[in-house]
Specification:
Elements lengths: L4 H7 L1 H12 L6 E5 L6 H13 L13 H7 L6 E4 L8 H12 L8 E5 L7 H12 L5 E7 L7 H5 L2 E4 L5 H10 L4 H10 L3 H8 L2 H19 L1 H15 L3 H22 L12 H10 L2 H18 L5 H14 L5
Parallel strand pairs: 1-4, 1-5, 2-3, 3-4
Helix pairs in contact: 1-2, 2-3, 3-4, 5-6, 8-9, 9-10, 11-12, 11-13, 12-16, 13-14, 13-15, 15-16
The chain binds zinc ion.
C-alpha cells in the first residue's frame, strides 16, 4: 500500500512540513536534497512530492493518489518523472547526460518535469560535474530531487545549489510501529527498534534467527538468576557462552539484558508504554514487584560496567561469571 502524507508526517514532521509548504505556496525550488539514514522515508517523500506536483485533483499539498498522474507516478510510468539509480556501484556520466538530453525537450504532457537521483553520493566525479552544470542552468518547470544517506560525500557545490531537507533517525516507538506495519511481531519490533535506529537494520535483526534466540536466552538467564546462583552459572556455561561467542555478540547479549532490567525499572516507575519485552508483561510485573527500584538500578549499573570491561582484555567467561555473581548479590564491579 502506498504511503500517504499523514503517515510520513508522523515520522518526519519537519521535513514534510518544508515540502508541503513549498507546494502549497507555489514556491517549488529547482532542486531539493533529501538527506538522512536509510529507511527514514526519503524515497516515499520524493514519490509523494512528485505526485503532489503533478496531481490533477490536489487538495492543498496532498495528492489525490487516484488520478492518472498519481497512478503513473506511483508505478514509475509517468513520461515527465524520471528516476536515476546507481548502475552497479555508481551513477555514471552517461546516465546524467541521457537525463539532460531528455530534459532539453519540453515536457511530454505538461510543462513540468521532475527527476529523482537516488544515492546521489554514488555519482562518479564526471557525473557529478555534469549534474552541476545542469543545476547551474535550471530550466523553468524542472525540479530535481537528490537523495543521499551520505551528505558528506557530495560536492559542496552541488549541496549549495539545493534546498537541503534533513530526515531524522526514527525514535524507537515510531520505528517499532513501522516494523509492525511490515508484520514483524510486536515484541521483536520493540526490541530491534531499541537495538538500532536504522529501519533497514532493525528489519534485518527482526528476521534474524540468532537474534530471536538471543532474546530467549536473555530471558532464560533472568529466570535462572531468580532461582539461584548455581542455576545461573550452569545456564551461563551451557547456553549463554556457546551462543554469545564473539565480543560483539556478548555486547549485544548484554544490551538485551540491560533492556530487560530497564523494562523492570519502567514498570516500577509505572511507564508501561516503554516496555520492550512486551510479550512477557505478566512476568515482568511480577519481577518488578519482587525487587526494589534501587536494586534494579544497581543491576543496570553492573551490566553497563560489564559492557565497558568487554573492551579491555578481560577474559569474557570470567567477566560473565563475575557479572552473574554481582547481579545475584546486588553488588557492582570493583
Ligand atoms: Zn492525483
Amino acid at each position: 500500500m502506498a504511503v500517504i502524507w499523514e503517515q510520513l508526517q508522523q515520522y518526519q514532521p519537519v521535513a514534510m512540513k518544508m515540502l508541503a509548504n513549498s507546494i502549497e505556496k507555489g514556491r517549488v525550488a529547482h532542486a531539493y536534497l533529501l538527506e538522512g539514514q536509510r529507511g527514514t522515508g526519503k524515497r516515499e517523500a520524493s514519490l509523494l512530492f512528485a505526485k503532489s506536483l503533478f496531481c490533477f485533483n490536489r487538495d492543498g499539498y496532498q495528492p489525490c493518489g487516484e488520478c492518472s498522474n498519481c497512478r503513473r507516478i506511483g508505478s514509475r510510468n509517468h513520461p515527465d518523472v524520471h528516476w536515476i539509480e546507481p548502475d552497479g556501484q555508481s551513477i555514471k556520466k552517461g546516465q546524467i547526460e541521457a537525463l539532460q538530453a531528455e530534459f532539453a525537450k519540453t515536457g511530454v504532457e505538461s510543462r513540468k518535469k521532475l527527476y529523482v537521483i537516488v544515492h546521489a553520493d554514488k555519482m562518479t566525479t564526471n557525473a557529478a560535474n555534469s549534474l552541476l552544470k545542469f543545476l547551474e542552468e535550471p530550466h523553468t518547470g524542472t525540479t530535481a530531487i537528490l537523495l543521499t544517506e551520505q551528505l558528506h560525500r557530495l560536492l559542496p557545490t552541488i549541496i549549495s545549489r539545493c534546498q537541503v531537507v534533513s530526515f531524522q533517525p526514527l525514535p524507537p516507538l515510531l520505528l517499532a510501529n513501522r516494523l509492525k506495519e511490515e508484520h514483524i511481531p510486536p515484541h521483536l519490533a520493540m526490541l530491534t527498534a531499541h537495538v538500532t535506529n536504522n529501519y533497514e537494520e532493525a528489519l534485518e535483526w527482526s528476521r534474524n534467527d540468532w537474534f530471536a534466540e538471543s532474546r530467549k536466552i536473555v530471558l532464560q538467564l533472568y529466570e535462572a538468576l531468580n532461582q539461584n546462583e548455581v542455576q545461573a552459572l550452569l545456564f551461563l556455561q551451557e547456553k549463554w557462552m556457546p551462543h554469545f561467542q564473539e565480543k560483539q555478540q556478548v555486547d549485544m547479549g548484554l544490551d538485551l539484558l540491560l533492556y530487560l532490567y530497564r523494562d523492570i525499572l519502567h514498570l516500577q516507575l509505572g511507564q508501561r508504554e516503554h516496555v520492550v519485552y512486551c510479550d512477557r508483561l505478566d512476568d515482568l510485573r511480577q519481577w518488578a514487584l519482587a525487587c526494589s527500584q534501587k536494586r534494579t538500578i544497581n543491576n543496570m549499573t553492573t551490566i553497563l560496567q560489564a559492557k565497558a570491561r568487554l573492551n579491555t582484555n578481560m577474559n569474557v567467561h570470567l567477566l560473565m561469571e563475575q557479572l552473574i555473581l554481582n547481579l545475584k548479590g546486588g553488588t557492582t564491579f570493583v
